[in-house]
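Problem 12. The chain below contains 149 residues. Write out its predicted structure in token notation.
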Amino acid sequence: MRVLDQKKIEYRSYNYLNTGAVSGSDVARALGEDPDMVFKTLVTVGKTKTNYVFVIPVDRELDLKKAARCVGEKSIEMIKQKELLPLTGYVHGGCSPIGMKKQFATTIDKSAENFDRIIFSAGKIGYQVEVSLDDLKKVIRFETADITE
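Solution.
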């Protein structure tokens, strides 16, 4: 949210701390939002040891073959949970595509284009932000592609 504030980008914030929501689907329900517009941020590593970020709807699974193809890798896999904090600055369950220690190649599932705004982690467990893709482009570079199963 600090990054969005600095860039004077309009967003809506959500706090679901008191709901007991853990999974992305639980979070969507707690917020009363369509799970197709609530996204999770996944960090992967390719065969070349390059890291990539994928942002997909909470009820979907990342298709590793499609994801690898879209970033030009032979294969990719999820990074180990213990590697997330040192690599991104975020903990599991609070990872946001905005404000990572380093800007990684980021791909957002094409389904995000169906919505005026999408919701994703604000960078801390219990908090989400809702931002338009146009505004998100002002903060991070990303592509959209069909990357889910």
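Discussion. DSSP finds five helices and eight strands in the chain. Students who got a different answer should revisit the alignment rule from Section 12.3.
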